[in-house]
């Protein structure tokens, strides 16, 4: 059993809608295009699919004609990212990508300042917002740093290994989501927002083509928010094992440890050191898969229950309510209503 989609906290959809509300955008149109009901939006503990989040972001881009989502000091007209991307696709190396990317935005929009610095064996791509008060929930910072990492990584055909990521704001309440976004430690209350990585990576050649870019842009931002979550070593190994399991419900820490050639005690200690737990990982995976399957109306809830390894639908219903505060049927009906 495997799943390529990871759910996204409702926090991010709520922040997007708050920004849209401040701009006076039509909320019913936005939620309708995303397939998110108001009742679901009002529950901060729920999660949505990457497809729903991507459709919401695209709708806000279109209605607001602003790729900075109303969170910048100046509107960034829709299409500017594509214009920049069509220039940098012809770059020879990652160094050229970051220089051209920064130069482009520094010329066309005063909402931010971008700069690539190299000191010794470290490269730092930094971003400073000229009016950070326009981004009170930090979503623009989070999204743009995510973009400055994932798009260049796509261009060179490999993930850029980050040493750390830094933000100029305090650690947020949704800090746990950062492990899904950035494959490295996060530092807060820093002078700027930045990505720090090995300077040797700047020599990596660009391998993508203009034809591949056209498809990439058509899918945006879906590909940027559906990358597999980044986890520490043993957390990742456990998740990989669970995703491959044909009997997720019957997976235990004992048989998982055996499959990973570890003792149960060693696996518990390794997960604890990484801030994880076996049951938490198993429940999180089942929750994300349930949300994904519930977004597909053709799959009966009884089938979802079996797919996730529950002995009976009532057991799945109890578990889903514990995870999200909602009944599976209520969640599906609310998602269908798009009100």
Q: What does this 3D model show about the protein?
A:
The chain is of the alpha+beta class. It has three domains: 8-74, no CATH class; 80-223, no CATH class; 233-337, Arc Repressor Mutant, subunit A (Orthogonal Bundle), CATH 1.10.10.60. Helices cover 52% and strands 10% of the residues. It is built from 17 helices and seven strands. It has helices at 10-22, 27-34, 38-41, 50-64, 80-88, 94-108, 139-156, 178-181, 210-219, 222-225, 233-244, 253-259, 264-273, 278-294, 301-307, 313-324, 328-337; strands at residues 8-9, 47-48, 112-119, 122-129, 162-166, 186-187, 193-198. Strands 3-4-7-5-6 form a five-stranded mixed sheet, with helices on one face. A two-stranded antiparallel ribbon has the order 1-2. Strand 5, helix 8 (178-181) and strand 6 (186-187) form a beta-alpha-beta unit. Helix 5 runs antiparallel to helix 6. The longest helix is centred in the middle third of the chain and has 18 residues, at 139-156. The radius of gyration is 21 Å and the shape is globular. Residues 1-5 have low confidence and may be disordered. This is AraC family transcriptional regulator. Keywords: DNA-binding, Transcription, Transcription regulation. It comes from Azotobacter bryophylli. Residues 236-334 form the HTH araC/xylS-type domain.
Strand order across the largest sheet: 3-4-7-5-6
Beta-strand fraction estimate:
5-15%
**Helical stretch count?**
17
Q: In percent, how helical is the residue content?
A: 40-55%
Low-confidence runs (pLDDT<50, min 5 residues)?
1-5
**Overall number of strands:** 7
Order of helices and strands: EHHHEHHHEEHEHEEHHHHHHHHH
Rg from alpha-carbon coordinates: 21 Å
Structural class: alpha+beta
**End-to-end CA span:** 33 Å
Number of separate domains: 3
Overall geometry comes to globular
């Amino acid at each position: 059993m495997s799943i390529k989609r990871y759910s996204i906290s409702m926090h991010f959809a709520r922040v997007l809608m708050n920004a849209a509300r401040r701009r006076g955008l039509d909320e019913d149109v936005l939620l309708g295009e995303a397939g998110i009901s108001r009742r679901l939006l009002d529950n901060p503990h729920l999660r949505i699919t990457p497809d729903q989040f991507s459709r919401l972001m695209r709708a806000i881009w279109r209605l607001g004609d602003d790729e900075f989502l109303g969170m910048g000091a100046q509107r960034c007209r829709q299409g500017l990212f594509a214009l920049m991307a069509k220039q940098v696709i012809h770059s020879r190396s990652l160094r050229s990508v970051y220089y051209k990317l920064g130069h482009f935005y520094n010329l066309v929009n005063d909402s931010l300042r971008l700069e690539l610095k190299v000191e010794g064996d470290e490269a730092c791509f930094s971003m400073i917002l000229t009016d950070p008060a326009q981004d009170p929930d930090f979503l623009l910072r989070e999204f743009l740093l995510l973009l400055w990492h994932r798009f260049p990584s796509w261009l060179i055909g490999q993930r850029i290994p980050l040493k750390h990521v830094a933000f100029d704001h305090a650690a947020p309440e949704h800090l746990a989501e950062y492990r899904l976004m950035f494959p490295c430690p996060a530092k807060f209350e820093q002078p700027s927002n930045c990505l720090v990585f090995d300077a040797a990576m700047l020599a990596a050649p660009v391998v993508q083509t203009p034809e591949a870019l056209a498809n990439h842009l058509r899918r945006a931002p879906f590909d940027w928010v559906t990358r597999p979550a980044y986890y520490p070593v043993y957390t990742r190994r456990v998740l990989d094992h669970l995703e491959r399991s044909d009997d997720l419900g019957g997976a235990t820490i004992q048989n998982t440890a055996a499959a990973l050639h570890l003792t149960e005690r060693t696996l518990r200690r390794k997960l604890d050191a990484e801030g994880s737990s076996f049951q938490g990982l198993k429940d999180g995976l089942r929750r994300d898969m349930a949300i994904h399957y519930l977004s597909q109306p053709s799959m009966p809830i009884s089938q979802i229950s079996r797919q996730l390894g529950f002995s009976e639908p009532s057991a799945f219903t109890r578990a889903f309510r514990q995870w999200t505060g909602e009944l599976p049927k209520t969640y599906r009906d609310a998602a269908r209503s798009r009100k």
